[in-house]
Amino acid sequence: MAKKSTKIALTYIITIVVTVVVILTVGLIMIKTMNRSGSVSDIEVTSSTEPEVYTPGVLDNQTTLFVLDSEDRLTASAFVLTRLLPSEKKLVIVPLQSDMYATVNGVEGTIYDFYCSDGIQGAKRAVENACGLTVEKYMIFGKSSFETMAAHFETVNHVFSDTLIYENEKTGEVTVIREGNCTLDPTTMRKAFTYPNYKNGETERAAVVGEVVTDLINASGDRLRTSMDQIFNGILNSGAETDITVYDYDFKKDALQYMADNSSECAELVLPSGVYDAEGRYVLDTPFVNSLRSWFSLDIYGDYDSDDNEMPIDSSSELPAAYSAKAME
Fold first, then answer.
1. pTM (2 d.p.)
2. Structural domains of the chain, ranges and CATH numbers in brackets
């Protein structure tokens, strides 16, 4: 009886297994037949070999104040405000006169005055209040670090309307730059930036600084595209004083490379406009201050590094159209 039960059970199991095999075989045949007729598609796993395209974002934008602090003299200090806008493939260059008027905590003075009394933080606050925006980073070049930095870029030419002759009594350095077209190596460039006797004073000196810096960046497009790491490591290791770190560069490197790869001339010059007051200080006019929001794309992107998105201004102003260097010529 036990043997009979075992034989029945074994027969039952074999029957089930055979049935399952038959069902699976028929099912596979039907699936393949349907695939050939186009009714059902095989599931395919494909992997893309195309590289991911990088697109800059709002966090890649940055406003930076650059200072050339060659020596203890107003005309030896140059201030340049920049706005990095990688998604627009643009770097806005705004040269600021050392005698530009500003107020900080109710105290009046020039940005050079605030720089002398309170260092870079005083200069940043003065620029923020005068221009109606937030300065996020800074970099200060001395005589040596400036020339080290400039050596990483292409040599540029500039046309001078007059011959520049000056002997620095403190340092004994002599400046002689002939009228007309001049090739600016790093030393000659620094001398032009710190020349104290331009016919039109600080207005002309700031314009020379802005024009040369803009040309320097635009002339170095190929070098920036191919040697981004080398150039920025050279700048950061030049001895300049800055709150820009290697980590900041790493964070923005893709955005910088995107801008260099997609723009042959990314630098755009914006010259300030204003008038001198009775104290001999250059006061930016309201239309220019308001235009900076357009140039810096603050109305599009906002200012993500400012506290509560408020402008750090001591005096109120309103906002209209932009003024470019070309429009003001």
1. 0.77
2. 58-151+203-302+312-328 (3.40.630.190)
